[in-house]
Design a protein that fits this description.
The protein is an alpha+beta fold. The protein is built from five helices and five strands; from the N terminus they run βββββααααα. It is elongated, with a radius of gyration of 23 Å.
């Protein structure tokens, strides 16, 4: 709802301008993203408009225990941004799957360039380690590279879509 900028409960949009992007869908509903390029807060405007307003009063929809839990974190992130004009690192924990995803992208690039599994292992884990462990009895290093190759090929065949589904 439009609000008086002097109201302490109002959100003054010029304070969020450096991070604010607003897009409208085909039905005219606005979708808002606040982002510094690394961190993102998404808001769906169900009634009213943010574009063109100086200040707004936000109403939040929390319903039920299970669904409310998923909605509280974005609200906490928004409050922190409004209070301190920065994205709080503590509210954006590192995703441990990102490092593995980056490695699989590197593996996919190496495969596309024609690299062998042994060459991929040397780049990822070092020449010396590959020299000592590649043909050893344990075979763990070779198995690890094979799993990365399988994962990279799976992502390239469309498995990347599952990454997006898992986050919701």
């Amino acid at each position: 709802m439009p609000a008086d900028p002097a109201d302490p409960d109002s959100l003054r949009l010029e304070r969020l301008a450096p991070w604010l992007a607003i897009a409208a869908d085909d039905a005219g509903r606005e979708h808002v993203v606040l982002s510094d390029g690394w961190h993102h807060i998404r808001l769906d405007v169900e009634e009213g408009r943010l574009s063109g307003a100086e200040a707004v009063l936000l109403h939040y929809r929390l319903c039920g225990l299970a669904s409310a839990e998923a909605r509280v974190l974005p609200l906490r992130r928004l409050l922190e941004l409004c209070r301190h004009r920065r994205f709080a690192r503590s509210l954006f924990p590192r995703d441990p799957s990102i490092a593995r995803g980056i490695v699989m992208l590197r593996v996919h690039d190496a495969l596309a360039a024609g690299a062998s599994q042994r060459e991929i292992g040397a780049v990822l884990f070092g020449d010396e380690r590959v020299r000592h462990e590649w043909s050893s009895a344990s075979d763990s290093l070779r198995s690890r590279v094979r799993r990365l190759v399988r994962g990279a090929r799976s992502l390239a065949r469309g498995g990347y879509r599952e990454l997006l589904r898992r986050r919701r």
